[in-house]
Design a protein that fits this description.
Length: about 160
Amino acid sequence: MAGRLEPEPIARRDFLGLAGWWTAALAVLGSLAGMVRLPNPRVLPETSRRFRIGRSRDYPVGSMQVVPDKNVLLVSRREGFAAISMVCTHLGCIVDRSETGFACPCHGSSFAKDGSVVAGPAPRGLRWLEVSRSIDGRLTVDSGREVPAGTWFRA
Ligand code: FES
């Protein structure tokens, strides 16, 4: 007679049957948990790449100013405003300004003042970024939107 300290042995066939049921139950629970999580996005939405850089009067005609912390050079001319990305198109280093335009410290690419490639290995010129005016009248740059080189925003 089996007591509390000596439980009745489970037959092998019963043990395998119970293990099968538990496995099936865990699989169903796992599937349900996955279905519950499915509507929630697994990635965070990308933060906006638009940023305000100030009023147009802060950038007098003829000036070229690096926007702090943004790796963008804002060029102001009579034609309007242009934002040139200072991210090298080779492998993404931040280019330095030079007398003739821009120079990449990583692999030696150089770019003219308009961002066009003078010497590789950069495969293409620096990106020109979209400039616009926000509702409050400040100039805005969208680093996620490239415009053709030579596109000037008239304020
Ligand atoms: S990252 Fe600029 S030349 Fe390679």
